[in-house]
């Protein structure tokens, strides 16, 4: 059954046509990597899926509910769609634990004790069980990004959107974050990731979607698509990244 | 002619300084309250309301405080509202203070990265929840130093109340000068007293700036 469904989605920034009729169907438990050149509309696509950007034509639904950017809709949507950003966006005035507990307490109305239990469990999961009381600024980039993952997981989302979440990290810290994602994939989490990590896309991902000029240019099984691309554009792209 | 000793001059000035302090305090507190209200209005992002705040800020920042004080004092009484010098001073200083604080705080709120709003939104926080738990706690830390810094302008601004006849430090200085014919001595005292009020405030502002700058 499809969890995220896009049907001929068009998106404009003013006169600029960014997404030109995107069709996409993501099933529960699938790991989908979105690749493509900078400016091809990858971030915009993710942001439309969780209502951060509005789209002008077509339809998007998550878990059979239509996505619009109405405030109240976005908030309901937030219960099933988690998102992680390139630059973490942790709340600097809160400790790691408070960062994770904030939304469960004020959005899901969980008790403080309950939220704390969840936060600790999620921190263990991302390998940062000892950082509950630390402030984000004391952590490395890789650790901050793992806290951001824990914060998203604490809302128990059905799908996790990741926008180049390892791009701002020092190379030696990328592995830790990818390991967490791999673990989540194994546990059956639905992941949609914009990424430049081709090895990860091939080995962990089920499907690759190649975006070019605002369109889904080519898509398919990750191993097949990356080793045997059909279009000239994807060949060039793979050639340039590898 | 009565003889004025240094102590007599100082004693009279210190007495008048109480009014400067009181006027500053009231103007600052009411200016802060009005600014809080206007900031809340601005944050609703309602285009009409935002426009109103913008015009308000431009109006009171773009005209001399002295003119505002004249208008409050003479203008209001011309259209039939009797207002004391004290009332006019408080009113104009409140308008002036709030206009500047709204603008200072706007800067503090707007310098927070857009990612803070977006992260809150994707976690399901409402606009008000985001404001209360994410934006304001960070913005107030940043706003402390410039707000205290601005209070120095308020203290100095109270001197203008002397021209509408309110007896505070500056007015007392002018009166003592007329009685003693010792302008240098009298106004040196006056300046010194203003300095005694303002310097601790700027020190405090610098301290806060350092403290919260490091913390971020
Ligand atoms: N808020 C915006 N306003 C106008 N143009 C934008 C905005 N965000 C992105 N764009 C433009 O849309 C195009 C796609 O951007 P984006 O989705 O960020 O691409 P990608 O993530 O693939 O690099 C780019 O040309 C970019 O300049
Ligand atoms: Mg992008």
Automatic annotation (TrEMBL), chain A:
It holds the Pfam family ABC_tran. InterPro entries: AAA+_ATPase, ABC_ATPase_HisP-typ, ABC_transporter-like_ATP-bd, ABC_transporter-like_CS, MetN_ABC_transporter-like, P-loop_NTPase. Gene3D superfamilies: P-loop containing nucleotide triphosphate hydrolases. It is a peripheral membrane protein. One of its GO terms (cellular component) is plasma membrane. One of its GO terms (molecular function) is ATP binding. This is Amino acid ABC transporter ATP-binding protein. It comes from Marinomonas piezotolerans.
From TrEMBL, chain B:
InterPro entries: AA_ABC_transptr_permease_3TM, ArtM/GltK/GlnP/TcyL/YhdX-like, MetI-like, MetI-like_sf. Residues 13-205 form the ABC transmembrane type-1 domain. The chain crosses the membrane at residues 20-43, 55-79, 85-105, 142-166, 186-208. GO terms for molecular function: transmembrane transporter activity. Pfam families: BPD_transp_1. GO terms for cellular component: ATP-binding cassette (ABC) transporter complex. SUPFAM superfamilies: MetI-like. Keywords: Amino-acid transport, Cell membrane, Membrane, Transmembrane, Transmembrane helix, Transport. It is a multi-pass membrane protein. It is found in: Cell inner membrane; Cell membrane. It comes from the Bacteria. GO terms for biological process: amino acid transport. The keyword Cell wall biogenesis/degradation does not apply. Coiled coil: none annotated. Belongs to the binding-protein-dependent transport system permease family. HisMQ subfamily. This is Amino acid ABC transporter permease. It comes from Marinomonas piezotolerans.
